[in-house]
Automatic annotation (TrEMBL):
InterPro entries: Bact_Lucif_Oxidored, Lucif-like_OxRdatse_MSMEG_4141, Luciferase-like_dom, Luciferase-like_sf. It comes from Actinomadura yumaensis. It is an enzyme of class 1 (oxidoreductase). Its EC number is 1.-.-.-. Residues 21-101 form the Luciferase-like domain. This is LLM class F420-dependent oxidoreductase. GO terms for molecular function: oxidoreductase activity.
Length: 280
């Protein structure tokens, strides 16, 4: 478990969709953490800017890709951010996807080796979390990190993950949200964000199959039932209830990825969701 106070809810956004102003607004709304998604580079300048613009907000990476960034580079960034901003930075690291690297080797061995290098560079166990979906890597997250940051999961996965982690390690799943009461329109937006990316990556599809979803559910952009399971949608109150299901299943924190139509300002939706979650 980390001694960094990440809060019960945070926001997850790709690095390209984040800036200091959004971080300051997230803090004012009561979110505890901003997660930098999309495999941010190891220099983590965006994290520096967001930390400088806030007083209490935790900034976390979700996640630095082990294939793209040497452990020594991200360790230097970790120490810089931690020294300047009072322990408000949480380093999330992960293996990424087999499809993304021609040099992809044994995932488990690569993760262990990377964590060994972070150890050698003085990055503390309680200052880092590990992207983890399956049982073996979840157990590694409990042993070699402060906990786990699973992506594209359901409350049922959270329940199983807590069983693997045991009591103590941080469990901070990501959950996609569409604030749209029309189910057809919500599924259309949600499906556009997962069908051509995540539902074609074998680490995510393997995890969904472990949870009982079939090849037919995963094919052709995902069945309605699957989309409803991995993307919370509806009015703010209904979406908030789905987010809370993760806490009831054993999560300590939920990283909310609010999906909006292209070009739409995300802040009104984050504000409505914060009110429904009673973050004020």
């Amino acid at each position: 478990m980390t001694d960094i106070n990440v809060g019960r809810f945070g926001i997850w956004r790709p690095a390209a969709g984040l800036d200091a102003e959004l971080a300051a607004n997230a803090e004012a709304l009561g979110y505890g953490t901003v997660w930098i998604g999309g495999s941010p580079d190891g220099e983590l300048a965006i994290a520096e800017r967001m930390l400088a613009a806030t007083d209490r907000l935790v900034v976390a990476t979700g996640i630095v890709n082990m294939w793209a960034t040497p452990a020594e580079q991200v360790a230097a960034s970790y120490h810089r951010l931690n020294d300047r901003h009072g322990g408000r930075f949480l380093l999330g690291v992960g293996i990424g996807h087999p499809e993304a690297s021609s040099e992809y080797r044994s995932p488990y061995e690569t993760i262990v080796g990377y964590l060994d290098r972070l150890d050698a560079e003085g990055v503390p166990v309680n200052g880092r979390v590990l992207a983890a979906l399956g049982p073996k890597v979840l157990r590694l997250a409990a042993e070699r990190a402060a906990g786990a940051h699973p992506y594209l999961v359901t409350p049922e996965h959270t329940r199983r993950a807590r069983e693997e982690l045991g009591i103590g390690p941080l469990l901070a799943p990501e959950q996609k949200v569409v604030l749209q009461s029309d189910a057809t329109r919500a599924r259309e937006l949600g499906r556009a964000n997962v069908a051509d990316i995540y539902l074609k990556l074998r680490n995510y599809t393997a995890n969904l199959k472990r949870l009982g979803w079939s090849d037919e559910d995963i094919a052709d952009g995902g069945s309605d039932a699957l989309i409803d399971a991995i993307i919370a949608h509806g009015a703010p109150g209904r979406a908030a209830a789905r987010l809370t299901e993760h806490l009831d299943a054993g999560a300590d924190h939920v990283a909310v990825q609010l999906l909006t139509p292209p070009g739409e300002d995300v802040l009104p939706g984050l504000r409505a969701l914060a009110e429904a979650l009673d973050l004020g």
